[in-house]
Write a structure and sequence with these properties.
six-stranded mixed beta sheet, five-stranded antiparallel beta sheet, 445 residues, binds zinc ion, alpha+beta
Amino acid sequence: MRLVTKTRQTVRRSLSDTQRTAILAFENEKATPQQTAMTKGIMRDVHDGGLWLQCDCRKEGMRRPLVTVVKNPGNFLSWKIWTKGNRLAHAQTCAFHRRHVRQQLAKEAWSKARKTRPEGFFAVLKSQSKGAKPHRDSGGSRVTGERTRLPALARQLAVLIEAAKLNVWWPDGETESRYDQFHRLEEAAEGYEVAQAVSLAPLLFTKVSAWEKFAVHAKVRAATAGFPKGHRPQGFICFCTSNVDSDGTYLRHGRDATEDKEAVPPLRADCAGTVTWPSIGRNAVPGPYLFFGVVGLSQKKRGYELLKAYAQPVVGWDRLVPVDSHYERRAFGSLKITVGRLMRQYPQFTWLLHKPVFETITKLGPCLPDFEIIGYQGGKANHRFIVEVMDFDRPSYLAGKEITHPRMELLGPLFTMDGQKFDDDLSGEGKRVSEAILSHLRQAV
Ligand SMILES: [Zn+2]
């Protein structure tokens, strides 16, 4: 591989075997931290020097496949493969060819909104007409370009979270207890129906004691008579839990008897069907979670039971803000401090931190920012800052960001935080982003 000038393709320097191996390992997502750093250094050289990288996967006379580097709106560099004109294409086996395919897949994956608000009744168990195939939830199945379609349960939970404003944080809300937040969830349920004239509110259970005493099962069974024909009776549980497994979750860990305390038996919510939760690569996003499940009559008519469940990671036991990763959990802690600073320096606005749960459609297409900081004045959003928590080392993840960041920029100034360089305080990237937002405001206000 060689670095060449764009105009005449004069060779500036040849890359060593070590550098070549590093570039290919990075593209294949198998790079060591040193190889990642080396690749990023070469990318910077190509970008800053206005050069091309000449690939060695094919050769036709003087022609070689080329790659250049572009800077994305999210402030990260990525390889750009030119395929137009009479450029020589990379070999099918070349990592850059695969990158090209990945970019096409990401483009396709983000052409349509996938995380949209579900319509109709607040129900996930569909009625089955005779001869119809059993309804299958898409689960957390992988879609192209790292896009996953949310399971039906996850989408319905997001509806409730949004209606209860659990995904919004403002400084005055900091004192709110978990109990208060569950109460908001229950209040939000009053606005939804599981079926015609069947309110969700009495069929949403947020107290573990109701599960322990089988009150959930009994109440769903009792509500069956009120369901119109063609609708499957169903109720929902929503509890905070720290761990999940494929069979359910522990709602309480047991305790052996001691001299002065009685034994406490463990309490579980066991699920007859699938339990899903988000993962990044192969790693499950750690808890705590909001464990959201549907209770109904199983097809085998064994009685009312928990039929499937979804575990939504949240910031913490006392802060039921949904997050997509542990990075986001830490980012939330840092951004909270930033919102506090904004509140003190620009008290003419009402500041809040928002975690969007559904995609926004822009004129370029759908996007879903990680966080938004919004400043309201007179009921109008005067300032909106988009914050993305980034994993800069994964090309397949970045392929999607290359497409969605220009869309996010239509919503407001975009700031990215390197997931590996901050904590849940105002250090590192957290401070940098905080300062950048404040400096932006100084110019705007
Ligand atoms: Zn190549």
